[in-house]
Amino acid sequence: MYQFYSVSLGNIAEMNEKQVLIISYYFPPMGLSGVQRTLKFVKYLPFYKWKPIVLTTSSANFYAFDETLSKELPEENYKVYRAGKSDSGFRRDNKYKIKKFPLYITQKIGRALTQTIFQPDSKRPWLKYALKKAEEIIKENNIDVIFATAPPFTDFLVAEKLSSKFGLPYIIDYRDVWIDNPFHFYATPFHKLYSIKLESKILTHAFKAIVTIRNTKELLLKRYRFLSHNDIEIIPHGFDPDDFDYTLTESKPKDKFIITHSGLFQDNRTPKYFLKAVDMFFKKRPEAKNKTELRFIGLMRKNHLKLIKNYGLSENVKLLGYLNHKETIKNILHSDVLWLMLMDNVRSPGKLYEYFAARKSILACVPDGSIKKLLEESEAAYITKPDDVNEIYNGLNTLYDLWKNDNLFFPKISFVEQFNRKILTGDLAKNLELAIDLK
Fold first, then answer.
1. Which residue range is the domain that position 169 belongs to?
2. Are 237 and 202 spatial neighbours (Cβ–Cβ below 8 Å)?
C-alpha cells in the first residue's frame, strides 16, 4: 500500500546539544486540533539535536482531552512545565473538567465580554503565572532560544517579556491571524489600536515570524511595513506518517459510500448547506440513500444536531463524537470521501493535511483564496463555494458516480510528502539555529 517516510523514536536525549523553550498554552493532555502542531514539533525536534522544554497551562478545564497524545513523546526527549493557579492541574488523580461546546451566539457574546476586559485575549491572566514559571525554567535549563505559538496570543507576550529580561532570541508561530481575525472582538478603536501596538512590538523584536499559510504572511507584510519578506516564513500544518496505517483502507466495506467530516464547526462554520445538499441528493437519487453513510467526528452544537433530524438524515448519519487522534485517523482512512468546510481565509485547517495524507477524494466547500489554490494543486478535490447548495449537490452526485465505478481521485505521494511533519520540523530547526547564531 502507500508508504511514506517514517521514523521511530528512541532514547536520543544524549544527542541534544541545544534547548528551546516552547510556550504553548494548548498542549496534551488537551485535545482538539490546536495541540497537534506543537505536539509534533516537540516529537521531532530531538532528531535535529534540539531538546524541547515546554511551558503550558496547568488548567484541567477544556472541551476535550486525549491522553494518548503524550504517549508519542519519550519522556527523556523533552520536559514539560505547567503554570497556573495550581501547578499540579494535570496530576493523574485529577479529573478533567469537560467544557460544553457552546452555541455560536454564546461564543460570540463570551468573546465580546472577555476581550473587552482582556487584551490580546482571554488568556491574559495566565501571563503572570507563565512568567513566574518561565524564570524557574530558565534557571534550571540552559535555554538557547524561545518559540511561542498562538493562539492564544498571550503566548507571544510571554516570549517577548522573557526575551527582554534574559536576552534570549524568540520566534513566534501564527496558527491563526491576530489583528485581522474576524472573530476577535474590539470593543472600541482603542482596544484594536492597543492590540496593533502589542503585535508591532512583538514583531519588531522577534527573530522571525512563522505562519501556516501565505494569506497570513501577506496580511502581516501589508500592515507592518517594517517587515521584509524574509522576516516571515511559511511552515504549513502537516501530517505525521506514524499516525497512518494504510491497511485500514483495504478493510473498508465496498458496499458503503462513506463521507467523513473531522473536527469542530468553529465560529461561523456550519454543516447546514452540506446537509441540505445531501437531502437534495437523496431525493433525486433515492437508491443512494441506502448506500451512503455520513460520519461526523468531533463535538457538535445542538443546532447542528437539529439540522440532521430536520432533514431526515438520522439513519444515514453516524455521530462518533470526540475521538482520540489515532481513532480519528482510523476513521478517515476508513472513508471514501473527506468533507472540508470553510467560510473564510484567515485560518488554515490542520485536518486538511491529514486529509491529503489519507489519499482520499475531498469534497471541499471553501471560498476563493490560498486554501482553494492548495486544494486545486492537490488534484484530489471537488471544490464548491461553501454556501452553494446546488454546487455541493453536484459534487455529491459526481463523487458518488466515481465511487460506484471505483474511480475516485487522490493526491500524488510527491504532493503529500511536502507536508510530512518531520520534514517541516526540520524547517523550524533551521530557524532556531539561525536565531542563536545571530544573537
1. 13-238+420-437
2. no
